[in-house]
Design brief:
This protein is an alpha+beta fold. The protein has 10 helices and 6 strands. The chain has helices spanning 8-15, 30-44, 67-78, 84-89, 92-105, 130-145, 155-167, 175-180, 182-192, 197-218, and strands at 17-18, 23-24, 48-51, 54-57, 109-116, 120-127. The strands form 3 sheets. The chain has a two-stranded antiparallel sheet with strand order 1-2. It has a two-stranded antiparallel sheet with strand order 3-4. A two-stranded antiparallel sheet has the order 5-6. The chain is globular and about 55 Å long. The model has no long low-confidence stretch (mean pLDDT 91).
Length: 223
Amino acid sequence: MPDGSLSLPARLYLLAWDTARLKLTGAGELHHLVRAGALTELAQRGLLVDDDGIATPVDLDACTGDPVLDGLLDLVRESRPRHWRTWVTLRARLTLVAVREQLAAEGYLRAERRRVLGVFPSVDHVLERVAVVDALREEARRVLEGPLPAARVPERDAAVVALAAAAGLRTLVSAADHRRHRQRIEELTERSGAAAPALRRVVREVRTAVVVAATAASAPAGG
């Protein structure tokens, strides 16, 4: 498929689009989900490892060739040591903006310039490759529903569903889906970190941070 090279954060961003309404859903919390996807992929690639709960770069010179992933890797290298949960939220919009710019440059999105109140310049992004996103969603739904055993699902594909479910991404996993496929989601979470016990801990730590961030964002403001 032409979208097979898409990174995990790019897939999660695209899956947030409602292709029927051509509208981005969950925009208020999407930066946390996209950042979680980037952290998970860097961990799956072995470029970030767990050191007593701290996200730690393995090599000061290693890179992926993907500007979004490499940008986050550089940020982690240049910052003081922090826990995985902290990185899910800390300056997470930087990763979201980088993903959006990357997808616009590659033709998945179209940037439309306008002026707010006729004065202030602004840019809206419109989904351009609707069919690609529909295909991504169908593929992710097959991962969620089976029939392929979770142990045979590619780790990145498993992480897409596990993280989307954690964030409550309604365009992929509704509340009813979450209840109906709870055991499958747990299996896919385990599969996301199948390469090593430490990676499984990382995936669970990142997933928990996404749940906390999504819950906080949906909570009513205090009076």
